[in-house]
Structures are given as C-alpha cells and as structure tokens.
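hey m, so remember when u said the tokens were messed up on ur end? i reran from scratch. heres the input so u can diff it against urs
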Amino acid sequence: MSVLVDSVATAAPVVDPRLSGNILSCANTPIPLDVVLAMTAVIKAVADQMEKEGRVFRGLPISCIFTGSDSFTTRLDENQCAICVKLAVYPLPRLLPHRSTFRLYTALAEELCHLIWDIADETLINFKVLEVLRNLHPQLTLSDLYSEAAVAECVQYAQDHQELGLSPLLPG
C-alpha cells in the first residue's frame, strides 16, 4: 500500500455506510472542519444518488487526498513495483476561498462523480453533480453551481443530446 508523504492526522470526512471501504481520505495538512463537514455531506449525497439509480460501486476504492498545495508525493512500499489508484485530489488553497458556498460542494462532488459514474465530459458532469447535490438541497439549479457560461454550455448540450433527457435539470 502506498502512503502520502508528509501525511498528518486530521479530522476526516465520515463515509456513508453504503460506501464504506470505497472512499478513503488522507491529507498532508489539517482539513478545516467546514470542509470535512461539506465532504461528509457530499459523500452521503453521492450514496443517496447511487441508491436512487440502483447503482453499485465497482472497482478500486477512491482515494481522496487533501493537500496544502498544488502538489503532493506518494511513496510505494518496498514490496511494491507499481500501483493503480482512483484518485481525487483536493488542494485546499484552491477550495478555501469558496467556503460557505455551493462552489465548495460542487468541487468536492465533481471529482467523485467523474470517478463513480465514469463521466469524462466536463459539461455532462455538471448535470450529474446537480443531481447529486439536489439530494442535499432539492431546489438547487445549475445556475447556483456554475457560471453563466457553463450554464449556457449545459443548455446547448441538453438541446444537442435530447435523448439523454437532461431538460428537467435546466434552469426554468
């Protein structure tokens, strides 16, 4: 098992029992309590969405790394020749300016949604993040989470891909 170099003991998000063992976290800097609570809520919202969809978590656990900068280092154990991980990296200096906003929840949720739903498309992921976060705040809209330009891209995407049934997620 690889380890995060310079990891610290810190408060960590609570993983919903439905995802127990599937989401792990570590940090190389203390995680502020409001970020811990936000991530705990996001993980629960993800579990709620998976349950609604009858989706089962498959594959490697997701390792969530909270960093104090834009970089981090891992070290392999002496017996390891290689490693394969699902990784979500959360640089706290980039997240902390968004404390107490939906942008923090959006950033936390987006990486988990990419990995769990295997969605690479940056516009399509906005719809999944909205679905997930509506489990916390049912009245949320894309406009609450994303810039005007991103919302416009979502509207165009939904129009271009009507077969996906995304229009109920568009702003009214």
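this time it looks ok to me. The mean pLDDT is 94. if urs says something different then somethings off w ur setup not the seq
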